[in-house]
Fold:
Amino acid sequence: ATASLINGGMMNGGHAMVNAGLIRSAVSGPPADFPTPAYSWWADEGLYSDDAHTTPQTTNGGVIANWEDRIVGAFLAQATDSHRPTLNTSAQNGKYGVSFDGTDNHLEQASLTLATPFTEFCVFKITKEAFNTRIAVSTGPTFVTGKDNTDNLEMDIAGAGPLVPAASWTTDTFYILCSVYNGASGRIRLNDATAITVPNISPSTGAADSRILGADSSGANAAIMTMCAYVLYGSALSSADETSERNILNGYYAIF
Structure:
């Protein structure tokens, strides 16, 4: 597949040239995404303990005020000290993860530029039934990926969506979850399992304009979870491109 040029990002020998100002953690930096996404948060780089995002967070259990994406330098942020998630320095395969307490921890991106359809990748483990990601669309429905109260992993659009049944996954185990939000052609896939399609959801339109990680829009329904990577594409990826990004994530985090 040919990677797109997104906000000045460009390909160099098959590797994305990422935000030059990003401060990496002490952990060896992760590989480039491919194709190039619109936004990409990997916990091994771009974590800060302060509002001004000048002090890198590298201490196990330390609070995270800002998480910087490596494509355009966008921030998932939390201004309230008590609502900040913490760093787990050995979350999966010796890599960093962002841990949410299930009470009020969450990170928000108030200004999000992302067209629909779009594709979402999460490298995470989740314990408590709750939202783990939420994207609000200005002229359309809310898109939610999370765990429901009967232990299904859910890809939900305006209250209806496919499920990964509880029998197909295990709480407190890391997975790569891919959600392709593309109307009636949408799909959800856990690791490299067969995708579950979305035949009952009509295509939606509108630009996504905000996002939240770890809870819903008010900070309620918070998840007990650890997130190692969160990647967003401003398109519905083909199966080949989905496989490419999943293999990159799996090569780094050794999920399956």
